[in-house]
Design a protein that fits this description.
six-stranded mixed β-sheet, binds beta-D-glucopyranose
């Protein structure tokens, strides 16, 4: 038996050289034929080394991991502490396990690896697909050299509720833009050839509709219609699947009472059948076992049965339900072995595609790792994206940009000079060191004249800010020509399990702003946060506001470029900032109501009695140091048929004093349809660079494909009839035209 296996395994290396899909299919089948049921189930088991749940601590735990590899009862690890330990485990797999199947190592590489990029929500505000793709390329280069084969990214949940801490991981409220960004991220991670040692497997998460968790509360219920699921939440996933993503992750939530990890309709019927997805699906952390808490299964055996019979989770992340139950379930005839073969095959295929059978150690490359840490291009890519991600929300009297010859500047607030508390990054930054972050003070110091005095005052903390700290800050402000107030919520306040019921500036930071404003000094508010905040008071009172998000490793350098005008801000919001908390959810592509509000304060119309309907800062909004005028919006025809293309053109002129970039946006509205359609839907954008005084004509193309939607029979098609098309510099600042589809 042993000899036969060796003979059969010998061709792995030869087989692995050809990574075409057909070949991989054949190879995975050949391996499966040699495996015992226990070994196949082992491939479906993923264990976490750091942050492990259960009783796996200390050396006993390490023995357990090593023993599991030896026995073939684990196929993957996440959160593996260091490269040497990964090498050790892989050696055990290759030398001491019967089947010699390589382990696949996973980690959440969410916005950069050792060099941290801005948080994904920030990145999306750049609307720069190339820069986003490059950022993921850099992350993949660095992570792959350190033995990471697989990242749990991109997170492509559409998010309309800023109370949810995980909005920082996504691309905001728009499905169409989110789909484009999803594809850019997949390309960045996976490149054009997964078998290269600098590309890593990506994972589309969280499937699906996790962004619709009720009240924005983490792990909470989702209750949406099939239409909303297909129209709003699924398209980025479909786009990622079409772009060749290798894996998906179940979401924690239920939809219509069914948890995703056991949701046949969602995973088996839509993802694996309708979309023909051939990769594998990993559960979220113990989400298979959590079906017990959801009350849809009676014990561990039952949850494993549900997920495997429905073929909704191929790999069990840190839940141990499969490893404990599947063998018995097969023996009892409750789970067909064919389902286990299918799940196992999907996982083996990913290992083949990554080239791991050919060379299980190729990602463990200390030289490449060292070189990647020193590569000067990586921080530059991070800086580039950070400055493109920042959004100028207000700039009265052109306070910004500041002059480099400024005599004195006060940097006040908890975020002015920090190297801790994830002030410039999110908590999804395992492995990155905060001491390597260029903070605001350092960035500004690098930028200004040697004679400029910089007064730094960080006494008023994010949460704890006493009156004496505020008084001290006022004294600091009085010494300077201009004040930069660096405030916000840090990376410990957003991300997983960081839902908030108030989304204002935490602690007493508003009191600090109020006191500093009273000095009469020009004040620039720089915000560090991972979600839209409620900023009504700040908008009413502070002359200049720059949304910096959590900008990552190059935070200070990127900020200095923006504040001093070496880079003219171009970012536009991808998630609306509510006027008040009670508006949530507020997003630009709402449906019209039967009683639309036309004039403010009208009775018997769909409105609030105390606040406007509109958000404070809408989707697509962001200022520049220059101004752009839009003119000559024109359509190539007043009607098209379903095979024709409509051209929508517009001329944009830079009418201000600075060169700069503008994100030109195009929206549509289906005026009469079988079901009510959103008041606007993004269908195109172009980011253009114009020198002061320069103008450019931008032409968008629209076809019937762009007009399709899920009609009353849930068929995806376009209605004949009239449509509006809108062009402008934000979702509210547009010029409209009408055309017909005949
Ligand atoms: C999160 C996932 C993440 C996983 C592994 C879960 O709690 O929801 O997004 O990939 O942990 O760290």
């Amino acid at each position: 038996m042993k000899k036969t296996i060796l003979l059969l395994l010998l061709p792995y290396a030869v087989m692995a050289q050809n990574t075409s899909i057909k070949n991989i299919d054949f190879k995975a089948d050949s391996v499966i034929k040699l495996m015992t049921l226990e070994e196949k189930i082992g491939q479906l088991n993923q264990l976490s080394i750091e942050f492990a749940t259960g009783n796996k601590d200390g050396s006993a735990a390490l023995n357990y991991y090593e023993e599991s590899v030896r026995n073939g009862t684990v196929g993957s690890f996440l959160n593996t502490p260091n490269l040497d330990y990964k090498i050790k485990l892989q050696k055990i797999a290759m030398n001491e396990s019967r089947m010699k199947i390589p382990i696949i190592f996973a980690l959440d590489v969410i916005h950069g690896y050792k060099v941290i990029a801005p948080i994904p929500l920030a990145q999306s505000c750049s609307w720069d697909l190339k820069a986003i793709e490059k950022s993921e390329r850099v992350a993949a280069e660095m992570a792959s050299a350190d033995g990471v084969h697989w990242t749990f990214a991109p997170m492509i949940d559409v998010t309309r509720d800023p109370r949810w801490g995980r909005v920082m991981e996504g691309s905001g409220e728009d499905t169409w833009l989110g789909s484009k960004i999803a594809v850019a991220r997949v390309k960045g991670f996976q490149g054009d050839d997964l078998s290269k040692n600098n590309t890593i497997l990506a994972c589309a998460k969280h499937f699906a509709a996790y962004g619709a968790a009720e009240a924005g509360r983490e792990y909470n219920t989702v209750e949406i219609s099939e239409r909303q699921l297909r129209e709003v939440y699924l398209p980025p996933f479909k786009a990622a699947a079409d772009a060749g993503i290798g894996s998906f992750m179940n979401s924690f939530n239920t939809i219509s009472g069914i948890p995703s990890s056991g949701n046949k309709h969602l995973v088996k019927d839509i993802l694996k059948t309708e979309w023909n997805f051939k990769g594998f699906v990993v559960s979220d952390w113990a989400s298979i076992s959590e079906m017990l808490n959801h009350g849809v299964a009676k014990d561990t055996m039952d949850v494993a049965r549900l997920a495997m019979v429905n073929q909704t989770s191929d790999m069990d992340m840190e839940g141990m339900a499969y490893i404990k139950s599947l063998k018995k379930l097969v023996e009892q005839g409750k789970v067909p072995e064919a389902n286990i073969n299918d799940a196992c095959k999907r996982i083996l295929k990913a290992k083949f595609a990554l080239g791991l059978f050919q060379d299980p150690f190729k990602y463990f490359d200390k030289k490449r790792k060292e070189a990647s840490l020193k590569n000067p291009e990586y921080p530059l890519a991070s800086r580039d994206l950070a400055k493109k991600s920042m959004v100028l929300l207000k700039n009265d009297n052109n306070i910004l940009p500041l002059k480099k010859s400024i005599k004195s500047i006060a940097l006040i607030g908890a975020f002015a000079n920090s190297k801790k508390d994830r002030d410039y990054m999110s908590f999804w930054t395992f492995g990155a060191e905060q001491k390597n972050v260029i903070n605001l003070y350092e960035g500004i110091k690098n930028k200004v004249n040697a004679t400029t005095q910089i007064f730094v005052d960080t006494l008023c903390g994010k949460v704890d800010c006493q009156q004496n700290a505020i008084e001290k800050a006022v004294q600091t402000a009085l010494k300077a020509e201009v004040v930069v107030l660096a405030v916000g919520e840090n990376g410990e306040r957003n991300g997983e399990c960081r839902s908030r019921s108030e989304i204002n500036l935490p602690g007493n930071q508003q009191a600090l702003i109020r006191a500093v404003l009273k000095t009469g000094k020009p004040v620039v508010l720089v915000l560090f946060n991972g979600r839209p905040l409620t900023l009504k008071w700040e908008n009413d009172n502070v002359p200049a506001i720059l949304e910096a998000w959590q900008p990552g490793t190059e935070a200070g350098n990127a900020l200095a470029e923006v504040l001093f005008g070496d880079y003219n801000p171009s970012g536009k919001l991808t998630m609306s900032f509510p006027y008040a908390l009670g508006q949530i959810p507020v997003y630009y592509n709402q449906l019209p109501t039967g009683r639309p509000l036309v004039k403010p304060n009208e009775m018997w119309k769909s409105t609030f009695s105390d606040i406007p309907n509109e958000p404070l800062y809408p989707f697509g909004f962001g200022l520049s140091y220059t101004k752009f005028s839009y003119s000559d919006v024109a359509l190539s025809a007043s009607e098209i048929n379903i095979n024709q293309t409509l051209e929508v053109s517009v001329t944009i002129k830079n009418i201000g004093k600075y060169d700069g970039e503008e994100i030109v946006q195009m929206y549509i509205r289906d005026l009469v349809a079988e079901v009510s359609r959103p008041v606007k839907e993004l269908r195109g954008f172009e980011k253009i660079y114009l020198k002061a005084g320069e103008s450019k004509k931008v032409t968008f193309k629209l076809t019937a494909e762009d007009l399709k939607y899920w009609n009353s029979d849930l068929v995806y098609k376009a209605d004949l009839g009239d449509f509006k098309v809108f062009v402008g510099g934000s979702s509210v600042d547009v010029t409209e035209k009408v055309f017909s589809l005949k």
